[in-house]
Amino acid sequence: MPSHAVTASPTSVSPTGPATLPPGCWQLQAHRALSLRPHWPGVLEIAQGRAWVTLTGTAQATPADHVLHAGDRLSLWPGQHAVVEAWGLPGAADCAAALAFRWDCAAPVASPAASAPGRAEGAAAVAVCWDRAVVQPLRDLRLALRQGGHAVVGAAADAARAVARLVLGLARFAAYRLVCCPANT
After folding, report:
1. With 129 labelled, which of 70, 119, 152, 165 sits at a CA distance of 20 to 30 A?
2. Residues near 148 by beta carbon (within 8 Å), at least 6 away in sequence
3. pLDDT of 115 over the 60 cut
4. 109 - beta bridge partners?
5. How far apart are the first and last CA of the chain?
6. How would DSSP label each residue in the chain?
7. The predicted structure's pLDDT at residue 122
8. pLDDT at position 85, please?
């Protein structure tokens, strides 16, 4: 999530484990806040929990508060500032639960009256979104597969060495039994 500034402590925002939430989600602990200042258009999507979002910026004369639940999405534009807080209703079972969210680039909606520089900026934003949404995950997948391949090759080599030591040990034991302990006749 390179397009945000975190105002909470480093331990309050973390990538979630693969078994708990869908990939690409981040977790914000209860009673913590996060500041988003996008450089490109994007969408904040709540995957789990409840969020209180205060939005200020270009189209907002006064701060606007939003309460987002799991599945809700909020579009953000450059120049806007969103303060996101994990928020549970007092006394509710999920009051102290962490918030899980996703931040994704969204291609800007070009209006017919958009000027040529605006279209160029929109094209640049789409290219950045492509890089973040497709190219970077593809690089991450290649790296993970390469590391997994190295791990498999290393494990196979370790197993082969262990088998070789076992065979050598059995041969030595058999030779020892033949030389030192002849069979009783």
Report:
1. 70
2. none
3. no
4. none
5. 80
6. -TTEE--S-TTTEEEPPTTTS-TT-EEE-TT-EEEE--SS-EEEEEEESEEEEEEEETTEEEEEEEEEETT-EEEE-TT-EEEEEE---TTSTTTTPPEEEEEEE------TT--HHHHHHHHHHHHHHHIIIIIHHHHHHHHHHHHHHHHHHHHHHHHHHHHHHHHHHHHHHHHHHHHHSPPP-
7. 56
8. 92
For the chain, what is the mean pLDDT? 75
Interatomic CA distance for residues 110 and 46, integer angstroms: 26
* Listed residue (128, 3, 1, 7) closest to 78, CA to CA: 3
For 57: left if phi > 0, alpha if psi spans -120 to 50, otherwise beta; the answer is: left
Give the global pTM: 0.49
Structure tokens at 78: 């450059």
